[in-house]
Amino acid sequence: MTEAANSLLVERAGLPEDLRWLAEKYPREHWQDHGNIHGIATMWLQRHDMFRELGQMLTTGIGDYREGRLTAPDFARWFTPRLNHFFGHLDGHHNVEDHHYFPAFAKAETRLKRGFEILDADHHTIHEGLERNAEAANAFIKTLQENEDRQRFAADAYADENSRLIAMLARHLADEEDLIIPLILDRGDRALGVD
Question: For each of the chain's 195 residues, which pLDDT tens digit applies?
């Protein structure tokens, strides 16, 4: 794995200082007032908000099941399509970023190349987390036909994997926004070749 994977995604406090010069020039609290926020920047923020919302939904859903607010069959019907939607869209989003946007952005601003390498490495770490999450989810769904002790144990295992994944994703999304949105605001969609 690269330097980025070694920075332990969940423990990372943010992007390294040498990659934050545009984030300092364009602070998050002023993004919505900038003329270049419309277009790809708004789309990016909306997609990230969707991932945060879906992650929170899954966290709430497993909590509802564990607290007895959802029966096993009701939870399975609710959970499976949302989990599949979350995984599919997140994987697709990362593929487009890795193969289209990150190379274009790194080419447009070479001083941020290492930042895009960090984000790319995050994607690999998150993908591994998605695989662990899917395995735990599948194991849990299988136990819904078994006794309550097995269900409870599998639900706890899934909840732990989900918490780790959501924590990694939260750090990654914030860092990605801090690198990309200021670059878009600074240059605009057209100059970056992403309009």
Answer: 444 443 478 888 999 999 999 999 999 999 999 999 999 999 999 999 999 999 999 999 999 988 999 888 888 889 889 999 999 999 999 999 999 999 999 999 999 999 999 999 999 999 999 999 999 999 988 888 888 888 889 989 999 999 999 999 999 999 999 999 999 999 998 888 876
The model's pTM is 0.90
* Domains parsed from the chain with CATH numbers: 3-192 (1.20.120)
- 8-state DSSP, 94: H
Q: Is 95 exposed, middle or buried (0-12, 13-18, 19+ CB in 10 A)?
A: exposed
